[in-house]
Design goal:
Helix 2 runs antiparallel to helix 3 (about 45-55) and helix 3 packs across helix 4 (about 55-65). Helices cover about 45% and strands about 10% of the residues. A hairpin with a 2-residue loop joins strand 3 (about 135) and strand 4 (about 140). It has helices at about 5-20, 25-40, 45-55, 55-65, 85-90, 95-105, 145-155, and strands spanning about 80-85, 115-120, 135, 140. It is α+β, with helices and mostly antiparallel strands. It is elongated. The protein has 7 helices and 4 strands; from the N terminus they run ααααβααβββα.
Length: about 160
């Protein structure tokens, strides 16, 4: 399986290069662009980016695996990330994780059998004042309780 940006994403990538004085500075948005296109960061896409940014595939891998926002394997359609920072923990994030595990029938780091949902626990998502919270794809859901989680998941089915 090879990887190449679509024509539209190639144009977006070229726009990233114009923003930064050095090509390697465009790595994080370029990884995000890869993930938007194929849903995860494959070994082939890392080699492709390494060629475009004049970096080694190892440098791309080190960066991609450092950040939790990059998926290193295919995941479900809806990526549920529950914040487990101290503020969210004090306001019940562990209960949110346990409820989601039971409701979806998966453990943290797993996708549902139908590949609709993938559950992750992550460090601070930067919404301490409205803890506990979770991010699903690009949207934040705050002040969570079981009823609110049920409502959110129902809308995503």
């Amino acid at each position: 399986m090879s990887f190449e940006f679509t024509i539209e994403n190639k144009q977006r990538f070229e726009g990233y290069l114009k923003r930064y004085p050095q090509k390697k500075a465009a790595l994080l948005p370029s990884l995000w662009l890869v993930q938007e296109q194929q849903g995860w960061i494959s070994p082939e896409s890392m080699e492709y980016l390494a060629g475009l940014l004049d970096l080694t595939p190892a440098h791309i891998f080190e960066t991609a695996t450092f950040y939790t926002m990059y998926n290193m394997k295919p995941i479900g359609k809806h990526h549920i990330q529950v914040c487990n920072s101290i503020c969210c923990c004090l306001r019940g994030s562990e209960g949110v994780v346990q409820y989601l595990k039971k409701k979806l029938g998966v453990n943290v780091g797993e996708s549902t059998a139908d590949k609709r949902f993938h559950l992750s626990a992550v460090e601070c998502l930067g919404s301490c004042g409205t803890a506990p919270m979770m991010q699903i794809n690009n949207d934040y859901y705050e002040d969570l309780n079981e009823a609110k989680i049920d409502e959110i998941l129902e809308k995503l089915k």
